[in-house]
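Aim 2, interim progress: modelling of the adenosine-5'-diphosphate-bound target.
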Amino acid sequence: MVKVDVKYTKLFINNEWVDAVSKKTFTTINPQDESVIARVAEGDDPDIDKAVEAAKKAFHRCSPWRTMDASQRGLLMLKLADLMESQARYLAELETLDCGKPVKEAESEVYYSITVLRFYAGKADKILGNTIPADGEVLSITLREPVGVCAHIIPWNYPIPMMVLKVAPALAAGCTMVVKPAEQTPLTALALAALVKEAGFPPGVVNVVPGFGATAGKSLTYQPYVDKISFTGSTRVGRIIMAAAAAVNIKRVSLELGGKSPLVVFDDADVEKAAQIAHAAAFANAGQSCCAGSRTYVQAGVYDRFVREAGEIARTRAVGNPFDDVQQGPQIDKTMFDKVLEYIKLGKTCGARCVAGGERLGTKGFYIKPTVFADVQDHMRIAREEIFGPIQCIFKFDTFEEVIDRANDSHYGLGAGVITNDITRALSFAKQVRSGSIWVNTYDHVTSQTPIGGFKNSGIGRELGEEGIKQYLESKTVTISLPKFPQFS
Ligand code: ADP
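Predicted structure of the complex, ligand included:
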């Protein structure tokens, strides 16, 4: 077993490490063997109040953060990125320990997060307003100002990237913030907090308060001095957060929620290649991905070959100890493990054909065999509900028109993919499918420059790219009266 040093387990408020006011702690569990990794301070209402107070003070117009040049903010962010790079392996191992993803994937997620930080560091001093040809003897301009104190509520599936996706644009915009990591994965958020301090950010700019959703998370959503909530997680909780955001004040919200994304393979595709793309789309991060391409629609002419191929790839997927050279580790926890196994049972009983997997792997830890269901029908629950586990559902279709309607027949609209060599068909698909991201002959290609987010129940707002920073800015219009000049007669 790889030994990873857990250095930080307290709350990070105002650049200091403190116990919870209640002195309570909670355990974080290793999903490989269900052992306790560490006890972490458990934040609740009074801790959230302290953290928000620190963030509010750091946002005061005369604070070091607010009076700092924007270019200097960018430099601090670059410093943070460098520190992350110097500790990339450690951060990756800590992530693997806490959430069970293969360490090489965790490491590439750290490097990916660094690109996001650097992208937004470059934007810090390039936040521009407009000059407006307003009617009358005036000059009008818009200023783009930080939205204020932000609450970032983070999920457990990609803890480091999800935190950086929110923290980086918020810092570039000049906001201050309180981060609440998921209760399943608090450790890397605290390790990043230590780097925030080391980089030299003033106290209170970034605070990290681990705790549970129903206590610390909820408290943030009702806190009157929080101006903005950005949340990634389930649609169920997104709905609760959106309602809470309107209860005490009018908080801005951006929500990146669930998905049940379609990936459509047309007859003209290279079947082997398509099966590989579809496999990665469905099984990335053990299927624990909002964007997972979990509904694979395959045109009738290549359907049987595709199903054989998909089953074969799934059966040979390397699942095991995430510190080894594997493609898939355990599911995050017992709740999710049980939920996924329940869906597998459901798939079998509702008449879908299980062509790979279909059970847990081994007897210890939350490992599940990559599972492929063929002949799935649109009305089945496995076809309609987000499973968040290593299950691929394969459907047969005949025509373009039919598959567009079926792809769109979902309450979700996060991602969608199409595999074809016909560019007209691909572009027509991209126009007609109602999802925030469309990938053509690839899947899940998300970079610091490309916005992601959802249509319908998949959320509100976009993260990453130009769109990502807009979520952290308010627009202020300034109109200046000018002297009236005499007209020529
Ligand atoms: P999942 O269902 O995948 O575990 P959740 O949507 O429940 O994801 O959780 C994502 C994040 O939202 C976690 O940090 C969790 O603690 C937090 N959370 C859960 N419930 C609430 C709530 N009522 N208010 C605020 N945050 C919450």
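The pocket of adenosine-5'-diphosphate is lined by residues 153-155, 180, 182-183, 212-214, 217-218, 221, 233-234, 237, 240-241 (CB under 6 Å). The first strand starts at residue 11 and ends at 13.
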